[in-house]
């Protein structure tokens, strides 16, 4: 038996929890909350719910709490996030990655000495959502700001939170050299294969044939080249690093990605190496798809191009594993 509490004001009606519930116990209310969104409601009894927490794991807006049959609260909002409601579009998985990043820092006991760097992009307001010190960096320059913070205060846990338009395009040189220098920082890199904030333009990660506002008939690789696989690109550097790629489009993938992010921060905490976790993310608005359709497209189109898994990892002494 489990119990679910849904905050109807935080809900944007994306329906991710509906898809994630193995017992079909959540439905759209067809009523509007004070923010103008149709919110979801629990349509079962406590005896029906197993307390699996999949609905809460998939919620991008921290709008669901779950208790298990023993009465213990098994999924709550982390102290690493503020109470602010995010500006992200319904179904955008930025909120999921915010939460699992904050959870990791809390679980590792690092919140009190963490500094995050928010650059330009959809995550430009991340300082409103993370409950620790944040810098705002110019477009693409987050690794440079992170380098300065970490070198000035090596005791701090410093990470950047960047999108593909920011990191892989204007920030490509910054991330390449930060990784090559082996800066002891952590990079959380969201790849949704498009420019999200500025109107859905083609990004360095846009797939061949993918429609965007600047490639209305699809990306033509003969003219614009192929999508850049940032994780693989950084992995060829000789400098030791931890480099992995996960996804946030389902609860199962989000939990696996959380383990990758946790490992990345552990490597920084222990002073081992540069760490980089790429996370495949959805952009329902600019993809022109529903949140559920976006998850399907990510799995069918993006994952073959950007395969998931740990790509590079150092041994305990900081040397690259062969």
Give the C-level CATH assignment of the largest domain: Alpha Beta
**In DSSP terms, counting alpha (H) and pi (I) runs of 4 or more, how many helices?**
11
Q: How do the strands of the widest beta sheet line up side by side? A: 7-6-8-9-11-10-12
From the 3D structure, determine the CATH topology of the largest domain.
Rossmann fold
Overall outline: globular
Task: Based on the coordinates given, report the CATH architecture of the largest domain.
Answer: 3-Layer(aba) Sandwich
**SSE pattern, N- to C-terminal:** EHEEHEEHEEHEHHEHHEHEHHE
Computed Rg:
19 Å
Whole-number total of structural domains? 2
Runs in which pLDDT lies below 50 for 5 or more consecutive residues are: none
Q: What proportion of the residues is helical, as a percent range?
A: 25-40%
Strand content: 15-25%
What's the main sheet like? Answer: 7 strands, mixed
Distance between the termini: 47 Å
| Backbone structural class | alpha/beta
How are the SSEs ordered, and which strands pair?
Layout lengths: L2 E4 L9 H5 L5 E7 L5 E5 L11 H5 L5 E4 L5 E3 L18 H14 L6 E5 L14 E4 L5 H11 L4 E7 H7 L1 H10 L4 E6 L29 H4 L5 H6 L5 E7 L3 H19 L4 E7 L3 H4 L3 H15 L3 E4 L10
Helix pairs in contact: 3-9, 5-6
